[in-house]
Amino acid sequence: MIRGIWTRETVAMVFLAALLPVAVSWIWDEGVWGTGRLVFILVLAGLWQALFTFFRAQPPSAAGAVSAFAIAVLAPEVGPLQFAIGVSFGFVFGELVFGGWGRSVLSPAVVTIMFLGFGFPAADWPHLPVQIGWATIPAAAILLFFGVLPWRVLVGALVVLIAAGGFTIDLLNSAIAVVLIFLVCDPAVSASTPLGRWFYGALFGAMIALFAAFWETAPVQIAVSAALLVSLAAPLLDEMAIALWQAVRRYRHG
Amino acid sequence: MPEKILTSEAGVSLPPWMEFRVEPLAEVGSRVAQGKPLLRDRRRPECIITAPISGRLSELETGAGRRLTSLIIQGEGSGERHQYDTQSALEELEGGSGSTALRQLLQSSGLWMRLRSRPFGKVPEASTAPAAIFVMAVDTRPLAPDPRHAIGEDNIARLNLGLRVLSSLCDGPLFFCQDQGPDIPDAHGRLKIVRLGELHPQGLAGLQIHRLFPARLSRQVWDISMEDVVAIGQLLSEGRLPETQVVSVAGPGLREARLVRCPPGADLREICYAFMSPGPRIILSGSALDGRESRWLGFHDRQVTVLERREPTSRHWLEAALRRASRPEPVIATAAVEHALGGAMPGMALLRALSVGDDEAAVDLDVLSLVEEDLALVDYVTAASPRFSDLLRAALNRIEANA
């Protein structure tokens, strides 16, 4: 008997590889201060994963590093204590209590960022430089090449974003690109049926367009809020897609 | 042309789900002709096992509940073959008057056990009529033989006769699944020729049944491989069972891959040993995806895979302890998983339903059309633990018990 390679950790490793171009351009821009923040989150997230490994025999996942990076890039600027509380809340209640990456409903990065955003509304949202947006293109290419990125989500979101922007690329800025590739297209939290994935991507694009039209705030907040809402809607979208599939089969096969 | 090998020993190795309970029809130590009935299932008299080669029945062992554990026949080169009386079955087929004698003939010659009914993937009951029959003339498993090798000039007539027998067993359509080449059988009324791609899992009966004619609790669908239909044709036209079947012997543990004709239940060591490369090896009956380590060629298998035997490497005690204690990792929905299910159904939803034991949702996602072999590729791709094929069998057993 032979075993294949597409275990959870292989997928996480592909995600880490895809993260490299974005990480390089972000660290280039942020310097030592940003690196320190990233290391702080990595240590804290690693600590929580280790605790759950020892007390609940829950294997740790390298995907935690991807979430840690997304938090470092996208989280609002708050003090270290608030930051520690937010990261702990996000990892424990967003992911680890559900059984770790692959069993959770939400990405811990989205939970952390929204927790900090709601908890400290006066904090400034980061502004992502334009080269990070460009760096997401090789990242998406790596993920698509290995078949890890659900391409239907990506295409669905891009089509809606471009159409809603009046066939320009106004709505495609760095913040939305990073959130789309690393948080929305995370295969563990996105919808899992083919049709559900089209719905899911399109819903993300529609939310972005809606928020951008009526909400005067930073693009990061718009993008992460949309990511949270579509993640919560993903099971419903899957359920709709399955119901539709079953109706078609009932019609076809009696 | 495949080389013909008659092994000096042959055994019977049944898949574990068959639960065959032995009632012997021949004495241990007696001489048996090839094709003579040897065993009958105590609970289901329509299930009969025949002698794969002619020789002496040298060993018959049963385990708990008289389940068959081992049956060995020593070949003694007389080449005697058992003759069946096909007169009444042929008359029935020509007259088109029912199928009682035909069923009787198929059951007494053991060819009935070659049929597999879905849902649940068991040998069909003696008197049931299926809603459809799928004849599989493709095998896309890695290193599987091309079923066209089993078709010679004289076998086309046997195949057409066998297909007529099958169509007299059921009132519904008869799907003949073949590759993209020219039609193999002659088309007739209810026979539909389906052309399939070459990539695994396209050639699995389960996916085609799911796609074309899903099985339900109230609607059985049977499947059978083309070579067995040829055997049915040969039984009716000559009254004898075929001596050999086409088997591919391949894998990384061999010096060269071979295509042979050998008896069902042939001794795999005898077939493989002369061609193995040096080093520890493991001989699987079946493909590398769903094969089992076995001394004899398995009941439904048409290929033998020889792999390198890897001893488990020793781990650090802490890592070993963590792994033993840990819960299995979940499966992530990548394109690999989607392709492994042929893109035919909401695959992740089905896998989730199986892993949490939600039988109702699994039935809604058409789990009743599948058997273990249909999920073997998912098990390979995701290295899942526990294996989805085992979870599927457990779910099917629960559904069957409740039905």
The helix/strand class of chain A is mainly alpha
Mean pLDDT of chain B: 89
In terms of structural class, how would the helical and strand content of chain B be classed? Answer: alpha/beta
Mean pLDDT of chain A: 92
Task: Give a count of the beta strands of chain A, DSSP E runs of length 2 or more.
Answer: 0
Main beta-sheet annotation of chain A: none
Oligomeric organization of the protein chains: heterodimer
Order of helices and strands of chain A: HHHHHHHHH
Describe the model:
- The complex is a heterodimer of chains A (254) and B (403).
- Chain A has 254 residues and is mainly α.
- Chain A has helices at residues 8-56, 63-74, 80-94, 108-119, 130-145, 151-164, 174-184, 194-214, 219-253.
- Chain A is globular.
- In chain A, 50% of the residues are buried.
- Chain B has 403 residues and is an alpha/beta fold.
- Helices cover 28% and strands 20% of the residues of chain B.
- Chain B is built from twelve helices and 18 strands.
- Chain B has a six-stranded mixed β-sheet with strand order 1-15-14-18-16-17. A five-stranded mixed β-sheet of chain B has the order 9-13-10-11-12, with helices on both faces. Chain B has a four-stranded antiparallel β-sheet with strand order 2-8-7-4, with no helix packed on it.
- The longest helix of chain B is centred in the middle third of the chain and has 17 residues, at 153-169.
- Chain B is globular and about 70 Å long.
- Chain B starts with a strand and ends with a helix.
- The chains are: A mainly alpha (254), B alpha/beta (403).
